[in-house]
Write a structure and sequence with these properties.
The structure holds 2 protein chains of 2 kinds. Chain A has helices spanning about 25-30, 90-95, 105-120, 125-130, 140-159; strands spanning about 5-10, 15-20, 50-55, 55-60, 75. Chain A is α+β, with helices and mostly antiparallel strands. Chain A has 2 domains: about 5-80, Beta-grasp domain (Ubiquitin-like (UB roll)), CATH 3.10.20.30; about 90-160, DNA polymerase, domain 1 (Orthogonal Bundle), CATH 1.10.150. Chain A has a 5-stranded mixed β-sheet with strand order 2-1-5-3-4, with helices on both faces. The termini of chain A are far apart. Chain B is an alpha+beta fold. Chain B has a domain at about 175-285: Enolase-like, domain 1. In chain B, strands 4-5-10-6-7 form a 5-stranded antiparallel β-sheet. In chain B, helix 9 runs antiparallel to helix 10 (about 235-250) and helix 10 crosses helix 11 (about 260-285). Chain B starts with a strand and ends with a helix. Classes of the chains: A alpha+beta, B alpha+beta. The structure holds flavin-adenine dinucleotide and FE2/S2 (inorganic) cluster (2 copies).
């Protein structure tokens, strides 16, 4: 099987990699680029632990081939903080203890950042529907939802 | 597996025509990748259609719309005019999967995957949508209901692919709606789906199309159900006749999601509810 050469942008940096045609974007991020923030929970689009954005669109990186990344702009959880400075969502998740084991957290942070960019003033049910594809086995979701609502309120005040 | 990303439909046709073994077109990949990952179907040739010119566009055509074959559910929901004219079609597509799946999934992928429970298919059938299909012998136009031929099967020949989705002009006093039954509120496969599209003159229905999903090997266009409401003001008698016709059309399976009896009953319930929504939308000022 011949490898495919791909040039793409990840968290603002230009990167190139060789991948097998069957490798997913998630495989490439984790195993070739060393970005292990995105997790594989299911590999079939159900859990959202692998969430990233591609050209600002939220997707499951387990349901996209690495080869499809050619020329795209990809953002992962590693790009959310600004150096040492955490994103408001990350700070609120800590404040609210909106995580336990943490497996779902990178996907939920990427998903909720994308939500707040599109809908700065979401209703609670909008947040819950937006996160329908992000499963969490630990928290019962409530702390996550409250952290997101509170971040949204703070970010609206700040802007 | 070989991966190709042609820049024209002609190249895609040539690749598909000459391919040996199992070929899949890669639109959003939300079915193809799941099948690959679970090793249900491991294609020998994967033809990514998203780099072909124009496939991401929604454009006006003959008073209706031409939807590119790589347009995602999210892009359809964000298109205010399309949503205003065809709310039922857009809501059916929007029911597919999560936000993440919406960022990738397409109408044509939903149709060509061939699931009897595919949510957008009854809405496409009720809307009277046609598809352009291009193959080694040129391009033909086909009605949506003629594409699926059974679970996982379509009428497309080797080398053929869908190259455009044609949504007819909506016209005045018309509306559509799609409803499905699932045991949860999100992220599940339809036990029954039903779409209704109709037109009114005053309070009277002058045109209607009714389609059911998940109650037969393919989504159905139910002529008797449409006839039951055409010429009526959707009174109780018309609704009962509609429900009876919908149930009569069912030829479902018994499985963990629902029994034959349950599906047959729910088909009537959803047909009545969807018809009422479509009727109200047709009567509303746009
Ligand atoms: C978590 C999850 C939840 C889901 N929930 C739902 C749901 O609620 N309802 C539902 O109906 N589906 C659901 N699906 C299934 C899937 O998302 C839909 O069927 C989707 O519309 C498929 O579109 P796609 O563009 O991703 O197709 P792809 O996976 O790219 O392709 C699907 C099939 O269509 C063929 N194809 C694609 N484009 C063309 C073309 N232009 N010409 C000819 N053949 C073509 C491919 O060869 C393949 O066989 C879900 C999937 C996931 C992963
Ligand atoms: S690993 Fe991608 S959705 Fe679960
Ligand atoms: S914190 Fe454990 S899965 Fe969400």
């Amino acid at each position: 099987m011949s490898s495919i050469h791909v040039s793409t942008t990840v968290n603002g940096d230009e990167v190139e990699f060789l991948c097998d045609p069957r490798e997913t974007l998630l495989d490439v991020l984790r195993d070739r680029l060393g970005l292990t923030g995105a997790k594989e929970g299911c590999g079939t689009g159900d859990c959202g632990a692998c969430s990233v954005t591609v050209d600002d669109r939220l997707v499951c990186s387990c349901l996209m081939l690495g080869a499809e990344a050619e020329g795209k702009s990809i953002n992962t959880v590693e790009g959310i903080a600004d150096g040492e400075k955490l994103h408001p969502l990350q700070e609120k998740f800590i404040e609210y203890a909106a995580l336990q084991c943490g497996i779902c957290t990178p996907g939920i942070l990427v998903a909720t950042k994308s939500l707040l960019e599109k809908h700065p003033d979401p209703t609670e049910s909008q947040v819950r529907y937006w996160l329908a594809g992000n499963l969490c086995r630990c928290t019962g979701y409530d702390k996550i939802i409250r952290a997101v609502m509170d971040t949204a309120a703070d970010m609206r005040k700040a802007s | 597996m070989r991966y190709h990303s042609p820049e024209s439909f002609d190249d895609a046709v040539a690749l598909a025509r000459d391919a040996d073994g199992i070929t899949r077109f890669l639109a959003g990949g939300t079915d193809v990748l799941v099948q690959l990952r679970t090793e249900t179907v491991i294609p020998d040739v994967m033809i990514d259609i998203k780099r072909i010119t124009g496939v991401h566009d929604i454009t006006r055509e003959d008073g209706g719309w031409r939807i590119g074959v790589a347009v995602t559910g999210a892009e359809m929901s964000e298109h205010a005019e399309l949503q205003n004219e065809w709310p039922g079609l857009v809501e059916a597509m929007d029911l597919i999967g999560s936000t993440q799946v919406q960022g990738r999934a397409t109408l044509v992928g939903n149709l060509c995957n061939g699931s009897p429970a595919a949510d957008s298919v009854p809405a496409m059938i009720a809307a009277g949508i046609e598809l352009s299909i291009t193959g080694p012998d040129g391009t033909r136009r086909e009605k949506t209901e003629n594409i699926p031929t059974g679970p996982g099967k379509t009428s497309l020949e080797k080398g053929e692919l869908v190259t455009a989705v044609h949504v007819p002009a909506r016209g005045d006093n018309a509306g559509d709606a799609y409803l499905r039954f699932i045991p949860r509120t999100e992220m599940d496969i339809a036990v029954v789906g039903c779409a209704v599209s109709l037109r009114r003159e005053g309070n009277k229905i002058t045109e209607a199309r009714v389609s059911l999903g998940a109650v037969a090997p393919t989504a159905l266009l139910v002529e008797d159900a449409a006839q039951a409401i055409i010429g009526t003001e959707l009174d109780d008698a018309a609704l009962d006749a509609l429900g009876a016709a919908a149930s009569a059309a069912c030829n479902p399976i018994d499985d963990k999601r629902g029994t034959i009896k349950f599906r047959t009953h729910v088909a009537a319930v959803l047909a009545k509810r969807a018809a009422k929504i479509a009727y109200d939308r047709a009567g509303a000022d746009k």
